[in-house]
Design a protein that fits this description.
heterodimer, A: 122 residues, alpha+beta, Sufe protein. Chain: A, three-stranded antiparallel beta sheet, 4 helices, 43% helix, B: 395 residues, alpha/beta, Aspartate Aminotransferase, domain 1, Aspartate Aminotransferase, domain 2, seven-stranded mixed beta sheet, 13 helices, 12 strands, globular, disordered C terminus
């Protein structure tokens, strides 16, 4: 059903779990409520120093989340753009499965960090 | 890696006795049963014998058995063929929301062609409610189609009572018996069934062969035109080896039914008991005694069903999420939705379906792997054990 890259990453996901005392965290369902993901980030010097995910989702989404966490590392917090095409290409398989919500979840975790920062400054 | 097959409701392996019955036909009987020469007559005799054998297992006449290419074909044909042949009496059909897609899609086709269809709700165990059935019946109802046993839950409907209700109102009754045939004695006369679907590959027979029983008392339009096969109702040269294998599988299923049912009940009880003790936070669907024991539908809280299926598959264990027909899709099973499961529980559901070839040792091995796989997935599940879960949806 899935290619070996996807299956290997699914079976040995990188950065799976939640960062304790995360600087930013968010969780999101996909549109039809059949998958749920959570991203947590640690920020140091304005860059994403650590990024982890948790998921109740199918193997492809788990592999995608794993790739996103790696792609996010060391990106500046104000320009942490994740290239969906790059993620898909790195998995070597484009499936008719919505993965936008995974990227949105990371963006929401970043927003959560920014909001917390703004509140702490007040 | 030893493989363990726990998906016997999707299909079963071909039985050795069945293969032995088919081999001489595959290798030596190549006549067309429709031909009148000796080659054809030899094939035709085998076809007649097979039809007789199958008819006897359900107390039908042999000229009431029509061979098809599958259970799906038989279901679709029953729905469309009976509806069209009886359109002069009305245009309303009643079925349930947990039918096989071959029934549901045939009903949708009829709706697009002027028929009206009522889809009955079911309770949390998958049973239709008689009050709903009675309410749904109206002037112009020509057919009720309710599956005998559900393929995802195993729930066995009270078919005799449904058929009786149908007949009291002069309505034709069809049932999809694909999952239950071979597991329970079926007497179409006693139960009052007008049309019934069965399939070979669910009872250790070959794939590509099904049958539709249609009582001589009711009318059905042909499915495939242009041939005199199946008494002009279903054209196409008969899959003779498949049909012979089907008949052998039926004979064996009938012969060994009591032994197999006893074994399956014990295996299922063992599996449920062991699984319950080994994995916390699981829920069983259709927790009723009126079900096929070997179909076991389980929710693993916080675990995605497809991910668990994949992990088990990588360890040599074959199971199913919901039903085999929807496994490629992210959509939640219509059966799980119909019994009222929320999305979380529905997408966490795995169907284990045991078979006569399974052993206690296999179940022990499977449970060890299930425990490990569930632990691995729950370790990073975003929904398991989370106290502050927010239901946000992607914009």
């Amino acid at each position: 059903m899935y290619n070996l890259k996807v299956l290997n990453l699914f079976n040995n996901p990188e950065n799976a779990g939640r960062i304790s005392k995360a600087d930013g965290i968010a969780d999101v369902f996909n549109a039809d409520q059949t998958a749920h993901v959570e991203f947590s980030i640690k920020v140091e010097d304005g860059k994403i120093a650590a990024c982890k995910f948790r998921a109740q989702a199918n193997p492809y989404i788990i592999a995608v989340c794993s790739k996103i966490t790696n792609a996010a590392l060391n990106k500046p917090i104000d320009a942490a753009y994740i290239d969906k095409a790059e993620i898909v290409a790195s998995l070597g398989e484009k499936l008719d499965i919505d993965i936008d919500f995974c990227i949105q979840c990371l963006n929401l975790a970043i927003e959560n960090y920014v909001e917390k920062q703004a509140k702490s400054k007040k | 890696m030893d493989k363990i097959y726990l998906d016997n409701s999707a299909t079963t392996p071909l039985g050795a006795e069945v293969l032995n019955a088919m081999m001489p036909v595959l290798s030596g009987v190549y006549g067309n049963p429709a031909s009148i020469h000796s080659f054809g007559r030899e094939a035709s005799n085998l076809l007649d014998e097979a039809r007789d054998t199958i008819a006897k297992t359900i107390n039908a006449h042999s000229n009431e058995i029509y061979f098809t290419s599958s259970g799906s074909e038989a279901n679709s044909w029953a729905i469309v063929g009976i509806a069209n042949a009886n359109h002069n009496k009305g245009n309303h059909i009643i079925t349930s929301k947990i039918e096989h897609p071959s029934v549901l899609e045939a009903c949708k086709y009829l709706e697009r062609n002027g028929f009206e269809v009522t889809y009955l709700d079911v309770d949390e165990n998958g049973f239709i409610r008689f009050a709903d059935l009675l309410r749904a019946i109206k002037q112009g109802t020509i057919m009720i189609s309710v599956m005998f046993a559900n393929n995802e839950l195993g729930t066995i409907q009270n078919i005799k009572a449904i058929a009786q209700t149908a007949h009291e109102k002069g309505i034709i009754f069809h049932t999809d018996a694909v999952q239950i045939y071979g597991n329970m004695d079926i007497d179409v006369e006693d139960l009052g069934i007008d049309a019934l679907t069965i399939s070979a590959h669910k009872i250790y027979g070959p794939k590509g062969v099904g049958a539709l029983y249609v009582s001589n008392k009711i009318k059905i339009e042909p499915l495939i035109f242009g041939g005199n096969q199946e008494r002009g109702k279903r054209g196409g040269t008969t899959n003779l080896a498949g049909v012979v294998g089907f008949a052998k599988a039926c004979e064996i299923a009938k012969r060994d039914m009591r032994t197999n049912n006893h074994k399956l009940r014990l295996l299922s009880e063992y599996f449920i008991s062991k699984l319950t003790g080994a994995v916390e936070n699981i829920k069983f669907n259709a927790h009723t005694k009126q079900k096929l024991p070997h179909i076991i539908s389980v929710n693993f809280v916080g675990v995605d069903g497809e991910s668990l299926l994949t992990k088990l598959d990588m360890n040599g264990i074959a199971v199913s999420t919901g039903s085999a027909c929807t496994s490629n899709s992210l959509t939640v099973s219509h059966v799980m939705t119909a019994i009222g499961l929320n999305n979380d529980d529905a997408r966490s559901t795995i169907r284990f379906s045991l078979g006569k070839n399974n052993s206690y040792e296999e179940l022990d091995k499977a449970i060890t792997i299930i425990v490990k796989s569930v632990e691995e997935l729950r370790a990073f599940s975003s929904t398991y054990g989370s106290k502050t879960r927010k239901k946000k949806e992607a914009k």
